[in-house]
């Protein structure tokens, strides 16, 4: 039986990955939970009935496992990926630590599975990249994409639990007429009942979130694809929504695009031109699929169409993609 380690097991994404392993029948005895600088005695839930001891990666013997997931910050992953790989593990990097390494393939399961073949270290892209590219996997094969324009609306979970707590505390204080001065530490502005047009740190005119999306898209799809991304934080705890404008090289049929998306594993098209005939961030928490709504022709450009997509960014597009990549490698 394959043995797994999850580095970052106490973070939001790491917990979702543990849930997926448990739900898919991986025994608790085959999973090691790791968390940097974790004190002895820490435990994390595994499924409904089990708990796992939490180990510190700096002291862990990676020869006990065959596959290691890094669901942690990139600077932490960089310290331990080579150690895990040196112990004959397949490493699945969810942290972006290896994203710029030309020798490390980046894989969206269901789109470029062949890139994972024979690789010992595999990068999986950010939630937004998976969420946008998975519905377009079959579309791109039939109507080659030449340009993407994305406007993304991110929940506070992108910044982890401290950001989610800040949204909660600000909301509570606003209803209590209390000052927010002590609760603007993560965003440096009010996030409750607000929209902030910055996700990540600025690197020139773009933020690193927008820049990384652009680079990840090109790494997965290759070619001369043009990409422009915009991202803003909205006052939600979990989920990621995006309007996506697609321009193809050939004449595009919106009905054909809708059919191709509907036939894609992990994608659900719910698109009704009536009030509430779409899927919102609040609808997708805990769901495994990427949901598509508002499919329509983009008449402002030749061969264009647009759509709205939403997903649980912790589970459906990050943990789920990493889990599916693992299955490509370990399922006979």
Write up this protein:
Helix content is 28%, strand content 24%. The chain has helices at 12-23, 74-86, 127-133, 137-142, 161-175, 208-221, 254-262, 315-330, and strands at residues 4-7, 31-34, 43-46, 50-55, 67-70, 90-93, 121-123, 145-154, 202-203, 206-207, 226-233, 240-248, 267-269, 290-297, 304-311. It has 332 residues and is α/β, with parallel strands linked by helices. The model has no long low-confidence stretch (mean pLDDT 94). The protein is globular. It folds into 2 domains: 4-126 and 319-330, Rossmann fold (3-Layer(aba) Sandwich), CATH 3.40.50; 131-313, Dihydrodipicolinate Reductase, domain 2. The protein is built from 8 helices and 15 strands. The strands form 3 sheets. The chain has a 7-stranded mixed beta sheet with strand order 3-4-2-1-5-6-7, with helices on both faces. Helix 3 (127-133) crosses helix 8 (315-330).
